[in-house]
Amino acid sequence: MIEALTRPDIQQFIRDHEHHDPFQLVLQAHKYPGLPIKAIAEQIRARQKAKTKLPEWYHREGVLFPSLLSLEQCSSEATAVFKSTMVSGQHLVDLTGGAGIDTYYLSRSFTQVDYIEKNKGLAAITTHNFQILQAHNIHVHATEAEDFLTGLSQTVDCIYVDPARRDAHAQKVFQLEDCAPDVVALRDMLLSKADTVLIKTSPMLDIEAAVQSLHHVSQVFVVAHANECKEVLYLLKKENTALPEITAVNLLGEHIQKISFTREAERSATVHYSAPLQYIYEPNAAILKAGAFQWIAQAYALYKLHPHTHLYTSDQLMAAFPGRIFRCEAVTTYHKKAVRSYLPDGKASITTRNFPDSVQQARKKLGVTEGGSRYLFLAVTEDKPKVIICTKF
Q1: pLDDT tens digits, one per residue of 93-120
Q2: Strands, E assignment, the chain
Q3: Rounded Cα gap, residues 307 and 268, in angstroms
Q4: How many CB atoms lie under 10 A from the CB of residue 180?
Q5: This model's pTM is above 0.85
Q6: Which of 46-55, 75-84, 128-137, 175-184 is predicted least confidently?
Q7: 282 vs 110, 342, 356, 377, CA distance in Å?
C-alpha cells in the first residue's frame, strides 16, 4: 500500500481532496475506479489532524501518516522538539517507536538512533517517512521492545520509552504497571543498559506514585502545550538517589513558560492569604499538575486567595508570572442579580476553582453565556464562595 499511496497521481488526489469529508469519499468510491479510496481517506483524515499537531510532517511532500489512533497517541511536534533539548549523546534507543515523531526529533540530538516497533506495518510506514525526512541516522527494528533490550550488548547514552496506554481490549490505562512495556518491571534492566532513561507518561498518572515506583528519578518534567497539559516525563539516572527536581513547562509558540522547584521547597514555602486585590493570577496547566501551589506564591511574592483555591493576587503587577494575569474589577456574591449588574451583554468566560458548582451549573444559575471581554472566577475566598469579575491583562 505504501507504493500505491506514494504514486504522484494519488499524492495529488490527496492534496486536492484534503478539505473534503473522508467518510463521504469512501461512500463515493465508485466514482474513483482504480484508486484505493479507503486508504486515501485515512490519509486525508490523518492530514487534517496533522496540520496543527505535526506541521513539519504535514508540509513535507511524500510523508505518509499511520492510523488515526497512532496519530492521536503520538507526541505533538512542539512537545517532541522540547524533548530533543532534554537529552543528547552518541546513541539513543527508542523502545516504543510508534509513529516515529519523538524518534525523529530526538535523532537531531544523537549520532545513532535505534527505533523499535513491534507493529511491522507501522514500522514500514515510519521507515518510509524517515527516508523522506532524510533522517539517515535512524535504524528501524520491527521487533518487541523486550527482545531488543535483552539483546542489546552495549551501554547506550539514553533509552526513551513511551509505554502504550491501551490494554488488550483497547481501553485506556495510565498506571505504569498496566502499560506496555511495563517500565516498572523493566526498570533495572533499562538502567543497566543506559546511562539515562527518559519515560513519557499520561498527565493522569500521579507524579508522587510514579517517582516511588520508578526510583532513580532525577528530574520530572510536566509539559503543557498552549496551556493544555500533554505529558509528564521522568528522567532516570542510575546513580541518582535524591528527590527529583520538578519542572513545569508551558510551550507557547516561540515563548516557553518554565519554572523548577522541589517537593521540599513546596512544603516549606511561606504563604500569606488575602481577598482579591488589583491583579488576579492563574497558574498555567503545567504548574497546576506539578503541584507548585505554595512555592509559586512565595516565588512571585503573591497572596493566595485560600489554602485550597489555587488563584493568587497582588496590588503590584508581577508581569513575569507563568500563567494568565487579570485585572480585578469587582468581587460580588454568587447571585444572578449581583453578577449580571456587571455584565450588560450577559456574556463572560467562567472558571471555577475550589467551588461547589461546575461551570455548567454556574452558567445556568447566573444566566451567563460564553463570550464577551469579561472573565468570572468562581472561587472560595475568605472562606466564602465569591465571584471575581476580571478583564484579561
Answers
A1: 999 999 999 999 999 999 999 999 999 9
A2: 89-94, 110-116, 138-141, 156-161, 194-201, 217-225, 228-237, 245-252, 255-261, 279-283, 303-306, 309-314, 323-332, 349-353, 374-381, 384-392
A3: 14
A4: 17
A5: yes
A6: 175-184
A7: 38, 21, 19, 10
